[in-house]
Amino acid sequence: MTPAGLIPTPTHGSPRSQAAYEELLPEILAVTEESIPPILIDIPTAVTTVLGSLPEIRALRPEMVESLPKFDLAQFDKLEQYTLAISHAHAVHRAAHGPKLSLTTTARELARLRDVLLSDARSLAAHQLIKAERLARCKARPGYRALAYDVLMLVQVLREAWSEVHDCTPVTLAELDKAGATAENLLRAVGLRDQAAPTVAEATVLRRKAFALFMKVYARARAAVQYLRAEIGDADDIAPSLYAGRVTRRKAEGEARQGTPASSEPGSDPGAVSPPSEQPSDNGATPAPERSGATEAAGRAASGASSSASDNTLATVMQLFSTLLGGRGPPVGKA
After folding, report:
1. Rounded to whole angstroms, how far apart are CA atoms 6 and 221?
2. Closest of 206, 202, 219, 201 to residue 25, by C-alpha
């Protein structure tokens, strides 16, 4: 199957998003299944966050060129495209799930139109202005297709006799046009529903792959920002975390000054998509915070419980820094 044949011609999202998606489609298709992280963040929120942060992130490009000789600037320069591509892939994925809802809405409206047209047609048939036998099979069968064909038949019958009946019915030609168009829309929606299983499956795969690329490129850009702004301490303001409920550096520092342990979040690990959740106590309830010396003990216990995850995250970040620096470790004062 060719890349263009994987999904219908996209008509969702902005033209820029669609163009970015189509340009990156070969790269999206090349993403391997094992490299795809689970989607545990809200994609529209992530997209707006990254797009809003791009000006400040891009402003650091000269420093990246100078300080990070092995940093992939080609991917960095396309961060906006990766962001727009996942936005479009998400829109296509949502649209693939849409026919069932639009089908129900269209059918409800069409059923109302059928009742109106059938009532008028029967009244006209009683006055022998149209042939009653042509209405005999109307509403004889259930189902969306039967409903649509009932309406198309009624529209045709009334149109054929329009010169004789137009003064005898409150129905207008505009209403007949609307009823016919709605019936055709319903038939199209039924067709989409019948093909929804493969379409949804394909759209789901493409969204997951586009998401993997987006997360990888943004994580690398964020790691570079964290390295360059380590001394200043504003990296999270320039390239925010995409995790819901995150604690920013400034908030964490404020809580630390008040003696409240700040919650942790994953670092720039490209494979991480969700912060670790709080572990409940054995009885299922969250322990109440203790006072005085017990607070320090609880902090040490929590720190020990998360040490393994922190070590893994630190190792990943340090490995990325080493790659960005061409094999050198972070300079003194940067790490």
Report:
1. 30
2. 206
